[in-house]
Amino acid sequence: MRAPAPLAGRTVLVTGAGRGIGEATAKLAAEAGAFVIVTDLDGHRATAEAISNAGGKAEEHTLDVTSAAAWAEVVDRVVRTHGRIHGLANVAGIASDTDNLADQTEQGWDRLITVDLKGPWLGMRALLANFLEAGGGKIVNVASVAGQIGMPDVMAYSAAKGGVIAMSRQVAMQYAKRNIQVNVIAPGVIETPILGDITEELRALVAANTPVGRLGVPADIATMIVHLLGPTSDFITGQVISVDGGMTAQ
Ligand SMILES: NC(=O)c1ccc[n+]([C@@H]2O[C@H](COP(=O)([O-])OP(=O)(O)OC[C@H]3O[C@@H](n4cnc5c(N)ncnc54)[C@H](O)[C@@H]3O)[C@@H](O)[C@H]2O)c1
């Protein structure tokens, strides 16, 4: 039986929580009873405000996931106020337009790898001492089906997301006996601003190539992240869970 507030008494930090999947995750975690540390470069204030207005518990912090100093500062402030952090959802990420072997630039490659791969590493590293001291913690890293299968025009993105999957498995093994669970969500194509101005034609093509026949919505992903941040997921670690409408099962 599912507890009515599975995250009650837990403090969880969500990156990229200003919009899209991160925003949905922050809001759902608050509905599940968590105190949510809502972080992003933009939009995080509005998310935290919406949570508070709905009767939830949240505070916002500006956090550039590529900055080790910013991670240290935010984690230090949160730990001083809340004592500990129970869970981390590394959701922030970027994609780029011309992401193929011919057209990707060195600068574009570096940026993608820095935000999408180094970002989650810095986040996990920043929380490690607090998790170890507290006797455990939960980490959910958001990768992509692009880290699992070949797809057009996502070269550096796939490299970063595949890296997140490999890195997460390794960290999961390293800390399994210390009660730190590390899992990865690999979303399919989800309706968020990261898709940019995709044409109706492409949208229809993606839906047709998705067994359930539609694109995902942020709540599809947030539900699984919140489950993995909660107490009923203690026996799940080192896993990649595709939430993709069956795309990778074909
Ligand atoms: N939408 C999809 O189809 C899809 C599919 C697979 C994986 N994903 C992954 O899901 C995650 C969330 O994506 P989304 O679809 O919600 O995209 P989005 O663009 O709506 O949201 C991404 C958020 O990350 C934030 N962000 C970007 N760079 C940052 C940085 N350096 N520091 C802090 N925050 C930063 C942005 O400000 C934004 O609020 C990403 O990791 C993305 O790669 C999305």
Automatic annotation (TrEMBL):
InterPro entries: NAD(P)-bd_dom_sf, Sc_DH/Rdtase_CS, SDR_fam
Superkingdom in the source lineage: Bacteria
One Pfam family matching this protein: adh_short_C2
PANTHER family named in the record: 3-OXOACYL-[ACYL-CARRIER-PROTEIN] REDUCTASE, CHLOROPLASTIC (PTHR42760:SF40), SHORT-CHAIN DEHYDROGENASES/REDUCTASES FAMILY MEMBER (PTHR42760)
Protein family (similarity comment): Belongs to the short-chain dehydrogenases/reductases (SDR) family.
Name of the molecule in the record: Glucose 1-dehydrogenase
